[in-house]
Design goal:
- The protein is an all-alpha fold and 226 residues long.
- The protein has a single domain, classed as 3 helical TM bundles of succinate and fumarate reductases.
- 73% of the residues lie in helices and 0% in strands.
- The protein is built from nine helices and no strands.
Length: 226
């Protein structure tokens, strides 16, 4: 186990662990977004989707445990790398200029921490029912948990909608850099594919931002309603 700890604590190893866990979280973000787009199919379709997920039993808890583990590792390694980078420069530069880096890369730490805070809040709202408990685990006419109504009632409140839109925008910033850099961290980037891979991050970031924002905004403009 000591070799693994040393590997993770190294700059190269830490970045590779960040790449693998980040890729796993990215895939989950895409699947989760596609599920939310089911709101446009109506109450019955969305509640069927939500009921199917809740009926997975042990598999559901295994998936949740795996996601939480990936998130914890991703955050822990990110903090470790940030501290190591800071310790490598005990004195600040008299004049600081960034070279060959992007806005998305420079804001990875702060966007990551804000996203983490929102994920905790989001779980408290829709998974644990601590926010708006009066709408939590209400039943639809078919006797299923009415996730559709909970979604609509949640995003009818402007503070919840606003915080969500800020979070998904920051998520798109975070993934714009992450999706472009994970191939490089794993040593799989090749000059032949540079043009395509450089566009991967921005396209994924934009797609996720639009996909996540669309259902709540549809609630705001009463395209999706009870």
């Amino acid at each position: 186990m000591s070799w693994f700890v040393s590997y993770v604590r190294s700059s190269v190893g830490g970045k590779q662990v960040m790449a693998v866990t980040g890729l796993g979280l990215l895939l989950f973000a895409i699947v989760h977004m596609l599920g939310h787009l089911g709101m446009f199919a109506g109450r019955d379709a969305y509640n069927t989707y939500a009921h199917t997920l809740q009926s997975l039993g042990a598999l559901k808890w295994a998936a949740r445990g795996g996601l939480l583990a990936m998130l914890a590792i991703h955050v822990a390694v990110a903090i470790s790398l940030a501290r190591a980078n800071s310790a490598a420069r005990p004195q600040k530069y008299a004049v600081y200029r960034t070279r060959e880096t992007t806005f998305f890369a420079r804001t990875m730490t702060i966007t990551g921490l804000i996203i983490l805070a929102f994920v905790i809040y989001h779980l408290a709202h829709f998974t644990l029912g601590w926010v708006q408990p009066e709408h939590f685990h209400q039943l639809d006419p078919a006797g299923r948990y009415d996730a559709y109504s909970m979604f609509v009632m949640g995003f009818q409140r402007l503070p919840i909608l606003g915080s969500y839109l800020v979070a998904v925008t920051l998520l798109s910033f975070h993934l714009t850099h992450g999706a472009s850099s994970w191939l490089q961290s794993l040593g799989w980037r090749h000059p032949r594919y540079e043009a395509a891979t450089s566009k991967l991050g921005p396209l994924l970031g934009l797609g996720l931002a639009v996909g996540y924002a669309a259902p709540p905004l549809a609630v705001l403009f009463k395209i999706i309603e009870l």
